[in-house]
Design goal:
The structure is a homodimer.
Chain A lengths: L2 H16 L5 H9 L6 H13 L4 H11 L8 H16 L6 E11 L3 E7 L3 E2 L2 E3 L11 E8 L2 H6 L9 E4 L12 H17 L4 E5 L25 E4 L1 H12 L5 E6 L2 E15 L4 E11 L9 H19 L7 E8 L7 H9 L7 E6 L7 E7 L5 H11 L5 E2 L12 H5 L4 E6 L4 H4 L12 H20 L6
Parallel strand pairs in A: 5-6, 6-7, 7-8, 11-12, 11-13, 14-15
Antiparallel strand pairs in A: 1-10, 2-3, 2-9, 4-8, 5-9, 10-12, 14-16
GO biological process, one term (chains A, B): proteolysis
GO cellular component, one term (chains A, B): lysosome
Keywords (chains A, B): Aminopeptidase, Carboxypeptidase, Endoplasmic reticulum, Glycoprotein, Golgi apparatus, Hydrolase, Lysosome, Metal-binding, Metalloprotease, Protease, Secreted, Signal, Zinc, Zymogen
Amino acid sequence: MNRVTVHSFKAALCLMLSGMALTPTAWGQDQELMLSEGSIEHAKMLRDTAMQGSMAYEIVESLTTEVGPRLAGTAAEARARDWAVAKLESLGFDGVRVEPFTIEGWERGAESAELIDPYPQPLSFTTLGGSVATPDSGIEADVAFFATLADLEAAAPGSLEGKIAFVSHAMQKTQDGSSYGFHGRLRRSGASIAASKGAVAILIRSIGTDSHRMPHTGSMRYDPEIGKIPAAALSNPDADQLERIHARGETMRVRLNVQPIFTGESETGNVIVDIRGTEHPDEVVIIGGHLDSWDLGTGAIDDGAGIGIATAAAKLILDSGKRPKRSIRLIFWGAEEVGLLGGFAYLERHKKDLDKQIIGTESDFGAGKIWQLNSRVSAEAQPLVDKMAELLAPIGVAPGSSDSPGAGPDLTPLVRAGMPSLRLNQDGRDYFDLHHTPDDTLDKINPHDLDQNVAAFAVFAWLAADTGLSFK
Amino acid sequence: MNRVTVHSFKAALCLMLSGMALTPTAWGQDQELMLSEGSIEHAKMLRDTAMQGSMAYEIVESLTTEVGPRLAGTAAEARARDWAVAKLESLGFDGVRVEPFTIEGWERGAESAELIDPYPQPLSFTTLGGSVATPDSGIEADVAFFATLADLEAAAPGSLEGKIAFVSHAMQKTQDGSSYGFHGRLRRSGASIAASKGAVAILIRSIGTDSHRMPHTGSMRYDPEIGKIPAAALSNPDADQLERIHARGETMRVRLNVQPIFTGESETGNVIVDIRGTEHPDEVVIIGGHLDSWDLGTGAIDDGAGIGIATAAAKLILDSGKRPKRSIRLIFWGAEEVGLLGGFAYLERHKKDLDKQIIGTESDFGAGKIWQLNSRVSAEAQPLVDKMAELLAPIGVAPGSSDSPGAGPDLTPLVRAGMPSLRLNQDGRDYFDLHHTPDDTLDKINPHDLDQNVAAFAVFAWLAADTGLSFK
């Protein structure tokens, strides 16, 4: 046969098959993957419906407008939980509940920093989350300049006595955000390293990839063996400025005053709702995003987007006229930004039913499109993950690694405890432009990109919940 | 002749002519335009040299780094004048001088604003230049929303009693910045209009085209007949947020506290230096930029760029081995941002030699490339302006209007007093993204774009100073 003939034959076959409500082949696939009848067609329908427009943006708009910033453990985060319960109930979800837990609260206070010598000028900066305060009158000290964290680590003990350490290592953009771990160490651990050399405070170049006067906050931790010093991040343009002055051979003197407050034991919580499964309701497939945000912006890309995506996907399934065999659990995680505390609290509370946490994924990398699917599941379940990838390929998702554990930050405790995982990787090239800055606001989100995320979450949640395969 | 033959003949002629040090035609052009011998070739050389790299960026880097923000009338602006004198002398300019004058000083103070009802959250905003303070304890009031200034103007007298007026009109991008006049009226005059209706304060959407958490400051004026109320600008994302809440039908309540200080009579000044002309040294062709900046950024695009461009052009001429017939006067204008006060002071001081101010142009529209040449000169001088346009066409400048008065903000008083004018219009599509914000920093400047500006300024200054034609 020539090609034209083959083509015509296939076209005729396709036309014939598409005319049937359920093809023998599709049903065969459903059976093979231990899905209910028509399950794959249902997943496709969910995908296509989401792509035509989901309610994800509407949800982010509501959260960022009606709550705004919602730092973990604050009254604002409590308002976010109230918003969440009311929103989920208004969408028709039953059994919405809060699993409360407490954290050590921290809130930003007044903060000011200025270069006082050699070229007096204010600095655009912010206190890092968890930092101690300066004395009320602030700190005034010469600056010890370090290009990298490694340079700071190499400084001689005592060499920073009475000085403010400044580390200027610049983060570069990556699609998968993979350099955040490396660069983020400066933010997380820099203070104690500087303190161990005698520094009285540390300033870092923001862990961020923009060039705006926007400092990036984020959490830091102290080594319990070392005295605590205040820690703050300069915006990238301000770090550039200090680099230029340093390059002139000048000694810089900075005045720093930060007055964060430790607010003691503070209430937070995870907001949870299930779409109850028909056959194994106690087995749950988890999707979600985190409800808390940093205090500087309104938490649109971090992580209003995740809340919107996961909720819109769940709502699509809720309204789809079918229920999966297992339950789909939608979780709005609390207190993520201050150490994945919602994830740890959930693990603690659900230790006894760990084997019922079948698989999960979280959306917490902004509002960009998904470009890759990574996973780590049993050999038995791999064909189902392959089927998910096949269904997502038309909307721009390529299969990635099938041996990559990780399902998003808040699921890390569960994954470490053995839960199988799947991650729908978003394009994060611009994520660290906005991450943890005042600029994380709704205007940065493209609604159509959210819809593509919703499509992928709906396909994952539906198929993972509707199969009888074991992921473990 | 066919085209190939024409082409070959022309090519041969070009080759022949280019081999001559000075073509009879060029010399004829020089004579016709009352230029010294070889003047046009010299202008081309200046242009080509600038395009290969000028020192403009180096100058902006020095000013923004070593001085930083330099608000009119402050110690920082005085440091900028010291920097200017030292920089110009180090570049080999003779006779650098400051023409001092005084202004009524104003400085930004502590400022905070928050939405307290219905959705409590802090607002990103800044006080407008010239605004009065709130009471120490701030103002707390309901918000009256207006989509446009026209809507505010249409409000009934007394209808804003006890309220904070918020006007949300959004500026759009234009290449020539022409909508700044229309939209800027809200900033300049909004406070007195709102006060006339009983408002206790006014918030405006920033006069700016970005979508970052960056408020745009800028000067405002009170109608002396109307009581003064505090005036401040929200960033665009914050204005969006209030619009969304207003659209929900909610009454918004805002707490505003701004504590600017009127610092009384304050010293400022214009920094001036001449490249002395050989035949008519008392006749001056003016180029320059303004030395002061707003306090929030480091004044890189507004107007470090103008300082760098004009200085680099003057330096190129200074080092070119030739002097023009008239003097070229380089002016770093003081106190531009607070009402073109340097321009008015210069006019006042130079009233007696107004006829010696031959023509001028200022660079004060950012760091983008020049795309258009506008002018208004005598019929006698028009051929010279046409020649300038011809020389600038290869570097992307198109002739614009020959009946468009205007030479840049600080020259407005002189132009109104009758001085001929020429303007090298920069592409300003992105100018109002950064204008008057904390984000106006060096990283936003492309050095190569500055070089193109330098080329145009050098061609203009050289030819206008070297001709014997009258522009008037």
